[in-house]
Design goal:
The chain is mainly α. The chain has 14 helices and two strands. A hairpin with a 5-residue loop joins strand 1 and strand 2.
Length: 373
């Protein structure tokens, strides 16, 4: 890998011109809203998705719904650990991004996670459609759900690999003979047809996913409006799970739309046609990365829409607070307040609710809430 550093040799007439570092700092200050935005998303995304992985792995029974949630959480966590930091570096050093391999690899993996999320959410929608609109068809097993999620990631890799070729070093020729380097469309392919074709392909893919999701969930909502509670119980349909999946889908579409619009504008108009005002220069980089909200928002959706998840988080925080602030004050009494006791209380609440809300016989010793998807 050849790494070329842009160093300007100033003549006496250029003694008062800016250095590359000064040009970079000036542009980085314009992108300060994006830098703050990415830092917040990285922090909340890592914590939130790790909590989802722990809670759904340890506290939920195996189901297709759990499979989809865990797969999304893994993809979202990797995006927070890999894709977002690459974009953060790109905004901190918009004219001093010298490491080409870091640029290509980061952008490739970022597209894998971005496209993979879209396909996994589509797989979830198809599963929900079959569950509600085709209740007598063979249900999707957990094993099949895992295979479908793996296929979704594999297809995402197939669509993302051209990005590793298209992305690379882009030169910026600045005043005073200063040359900057940006992680963007590689200069070697910038004037070819490949970036245009690739953008068209991705636009078609996202449009297909958006339309499919809208059609599938429109049919699902119409079908649910015709269902009675007796039918829902008979076919083991959970409207709550459907609402969570719809919320995930809405968040996905809303977060991806700005980037899709900007890509379409840049592609079909052969560059940015918006005025280079401070507001535009500070806002566009943020809007182009708004899709990262999709990798952070899901834990919030589970907390708001899933009572068991919310209860576990609250009890865990209560246990943590007690452990941190009361372990030395009342050592004897605190021994009776353990993590297992906290979750045992949570399980007892779930069991009590199931007993009072259902006339069906419960299996002795059942501690967990049953979820079907």
């Amino acid at each position: 890998m050849n790494i070329t550093l842009g160093v300007a040799v100033s003549s006496p007439q250029q003694a008062n011109s800016k250095t590359l570092e000064e040009f970079n700092d000036e542009k980085a200050r314009q992108r300060l809203p994006t830098i703050i935005f990415l830092c917040i998303l990285i922090a909340f995304g890592i914590i939130g998705n790790m909590v989802v992985l722990v809670v759904y792995t340890l506290r939920y029974r195996s189901s297709t719904f759990r499979t989809y949630i865990l797969t999304l959480a893994v993809v979202d966590l990797l995006s927070c650990l890999i894709a977002m930091p690459v974009e953060l570096v790109d905004n901190l050093y918009p004219l001093m991004f010298f490491i080409e391999g870091f640029c290509k690899g980061g952008r490739f993996l970022g597209h894998v996670f971005k496209i993979g999320s879209a396909f996994i959410i589509l797989v979830m929608a198809v599963g929900r459609f079959r569950k509600i609109c085709r209740p007598f068809s063979k249900p999707i097993s957990v094993k099949k759900a895992q295979i479908l999620c793996a296929i979704a990631i594999f297809v995402a890799i197939l669509f993302a690999w051209p990005n590793a070729i298209i992305q690379g070093m882009r030169h910026h020729y600045l005043k005073g003979g200063v040359v900057g380097y940006d992680c963007s469309v590689d200069d070697r392919v910038k004037k070819t047809i490949y970036p245009f074709v690739y953008t068209i392909v991705l636009t078609v893919v996202y449009t297909f996913v958006f339309i499919s999701l809208l059609v599938l969930y429109t049919i699902v909502i119409l079908k649910l409006s015709q269902h009675s509670k007796v039918e829902d119980k008979k076919h083991r349909i959970s409207p709550r799970i459907t609402k969570i999946m719809i919320a995930i889908t809405v968040a996905f579409i809303l977060s991806y739309i700005p980037d899709c619009i900007l890509d379409a504008n840049s592609t079909f108009n052969k560059g940015n046609t918006l005025p280079s005002t401070p507001v535009v220069l500070g806002t566009l980089p943020l809007l182009a990365r708004a899709y990262f909200v999709n990798n952070v928002i899901n834990p919030v959706i589970y907390f708001v829409g899933e009572s068991k998840f919310r209860r576990i988080i609250k009890l865990s925080m209560l246990w943590l607070f007690h452990y941190l602030f009361h372990r030395n004050k009342n050592a004897v009494g605190s021994q009776h307040f353990k993590m297992s006791d906290t979750f045992r209380k949570e399980d007892e609440l779930v069991t009590a609710r199931q007993t009072t809300s259902s006339t069906r016989t419960q299996r002795p010793g059942s501690q967990y809430q049953q979820f079907t998807a």
